[in-house]
């Protein structure tokens, strides 16, 4: 019996060692799929961290852009690859906790995909054109109430935090605003600046440069804390809108079929690379808030909780994909 047990243990260890050696081998590059366009914020993050991983391990890292279908094209490509740790993805958490609430995806986002590591947060701000009549949050609410039923808010897509925030704000403040959905932030922000739409809840990555250049006015931050570069701008919670508390995450993802030792190795090398001060500075430079977490169980629990919250919002406001 002891001999059989030893043999089983030896075989298990051999399997783990083989899986590790496959991942650690320099024969194959580490392929990181980015479900977004080249030059975007997530793409930049992938290249910055990938370069550090390559420097730390001596292993080539290839970034592959697979945009479309709110991330499902890129995630599907990752899941079709062998679950040996040679192909992973980097993208925003909305791919797992927002998009599947309003569109059908060919995988279970919380069962088929494992979060390898979170590397950064993204925050959101309530903004208008810089020349909009309201100068602060209180005057904004008063102005929109005067125009009840005639004002509008933009979002960068149906079924996103950008829409959730606008709907909750309009409902709780009694504004009866019209939702105008776009297929991304750039065009939406241009129409806000141009006065075609009154306000928008947008990610800091795209709105902060326009705030700094004086083209947008920020009224509030829709996060847990005030944003580091806008210390005088209150949170929606401080202003009495505790339900408008959203924060996105930028994470590395892999197949849930990854061998445990391979997952651990990926977490070790990614965690180390993402924690390098120079890497974190580059992430900050593009509007992200560096925050490294490789606790798989905690990240899964957080995704489940966020997914349940989002599902409740979608149901309450009867949000449907276009």
TrEMBL record:
Keyword terms, alphabetized: Signal
Signal sequence extent: 1-24
InterPro entries: BUG, Bug_dom1
Protein name (record): Tripartite tricarboxylate transporter substrate binding protein
Pfam assignment, any one: TctC
Family: Belongs to the UPF0065 (bug) family.
């Amino acid at each position: 019996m002891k001999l059989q047990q030893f043999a089983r243990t030896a075989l298990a260890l051999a399997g783990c060692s083989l899986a590790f050696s496959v991942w650690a081998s320099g024969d194959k590059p580490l392929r990181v799929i980015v479900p977004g366009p080249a030059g975007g914020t997530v793409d930049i993050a992938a290249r910055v961290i990938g370069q550090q991983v390559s420097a730390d391990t001596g292993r080539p890292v290839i970034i592959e852009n697979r945009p479309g279908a709110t991330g499902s094209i890129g995630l599907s490509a990752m899941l079709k690859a062998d679950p040996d740790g040679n192909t992973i993805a980097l993208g925003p958490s909305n791919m797992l906790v927002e998009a599947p609430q309003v569109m059908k995806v060919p995988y279970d986002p919380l069962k088929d995909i494992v979060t390898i590591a979170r590397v950064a947060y993204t925050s959101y701000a309530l903004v208008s054109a810089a020349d909009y009549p309201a100068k602060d949050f209180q005057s904004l609410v008063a102005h929109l109430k005067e125009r009840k039923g005639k004002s509008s808010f933009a979002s960068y897509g149906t079924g996103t935090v950008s829409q959730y925030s606008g709907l909750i704000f309009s409902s709780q403040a009694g504004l009866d605003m019209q939702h105008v959905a776009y297929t991304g932030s750039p065009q939406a922000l241009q129409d806000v600046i141009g006065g075609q739409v009154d306000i928008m809840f947008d990610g800091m990555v795209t709105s902060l440069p326009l705030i700094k250049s004086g083209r947008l006015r920020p009224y509030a931050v829709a996060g847990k804390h005030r944003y580091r570069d806008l210390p005088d701008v209150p949170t929606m919670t401080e202003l009495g809108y505790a339900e408008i508390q959203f924060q996105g995450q930028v994470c590395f993802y892999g197949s849930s079929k990854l061998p445990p030792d391979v997952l651990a190795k990926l977490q070790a090398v990614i965690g180390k690379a993402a924690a390098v001060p120079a890497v974190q500075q580059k992430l900050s430079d593009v509007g992200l808030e560096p925050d490294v977490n490789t606790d798989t169980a905690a990240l899964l629990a957080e995704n489940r909780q966020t997914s349940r919250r989002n599902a409740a919002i979608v149901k309450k406001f009867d949000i449907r994909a276009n």
